[in-house]
Write a structure and sequence with these properties.
- β2 (about 35-50) and β3 (about 55-65) form a beta hairpin.
- The chain starts with a strand and ends in a 6-residue tail after the last helix.
- The mean pLDDT is about 75.
- Helices cover about 35% and strands about 25% of the residues.
- It has helices at about 15-30, 70-80, 100-115, 140-145, 150-155, 165-170, 180-185, and strands at about 5-10, 35-50, 55-65, 85-95.
- By secondary structure, it is of the alpha+beta class.
- Among the domains are: about 5-100, 2-Layer Sandwich (Alpha-Beta Plaits), CATH 3.30.70.60; about 160-193, no CATH class.
- The radius of gyration is 33 Å and the shape is extended.
- It has seven helices and four strands; from the N terminus they run βαββαβααααα.
- The protein has a four-stranded antiparallel β-sheet with strand order 2-3-1-4.
Length: about 190
């Protein structure tokens, strides 16, 4: 039978018990139709990158399945009908991954880091990088202290460009037969020579 990895996200308002009931319901459907679940993981509540149906977080559940395609169609149909399920994704794989998934390894790694006291960015009180002495940064000049930098703007030369009127007047002088540029004509169609 084909092998699949299946993940579904349920609403953040759902309790852990409701998510567990949904998972057991899907598990029953899979086993009833001749498939089997090789691995089942609850990844917990994670933040979403963007809001989905007014939810900022979701419960993630991961399953490794060994089932025929009809089973996948049925569980995806069940998930579409269930209002608790925000999204689902099923991917066919060549072989199932042994051991914990990458998300569970990440959770274990974070738990170990917290136990041994290493913090990095999150741990400023224990000597993070922001506590170090940055030394003398030198004089940055007066213009950085002036919030509006008015002096610097007044000293700049004015940019050299022509307005549409100047361009039209220049094109209409002399014996030139309407040498008006196309852009000037489009911008100022009412000007005549």
């Amino acid at each position: 039978m084909p092998l699949y990895e299946h993940v579904f996200m349920s609403r953040q308002d759902a309790s852990a018990q409701q998510v567990e009931e949904l998972t057991t319901h899907l598990k029953g459907v899979i086993e009833q139709m001749g498939g089997k679940i090789a691995k089942l993981e609850q990844w917990g509540v994670k933040s979403l990158s963007y809001r989905l149906r007014k939810n900022r977080k979701a419960h993630y559940t991961f399953m490794n399945l060994d089932a025929p395609p009809a089973v996948i169609n049925e569980i995806e149909r069940q998930e579409r009908l269930n209002e608790e399920v925000l999204r689902y994704l099923t991917v066919r794989v060549e072989e199932l991954e042994e051991g914990p998934s990458a998300m569970m390894r990440k959770v274990d790694r974070d738990r170990e880091r917290d136990e041994r006291g290493g913090g990095g960015f999150r741990d400023r009180d224990r000597g993070g990088f922001r506590d170090r002495d940055r030394g003398d940064r030198g004089d940055r000049g007066d213009f950085r202290r002036d919030p509006l930098c008015l002096r610097a703007r007044q000293d700049r030369p004015k940019p050299h460009h022509r307005s549409i009127g100047e361009e039209t007047a220049r094109a209409c002088t002399g014996d030139q037969a309407r040498a008006l540029s196309r852009t000037a004509a489009l911008r100022d169609p009412l000007s005549s020579c």
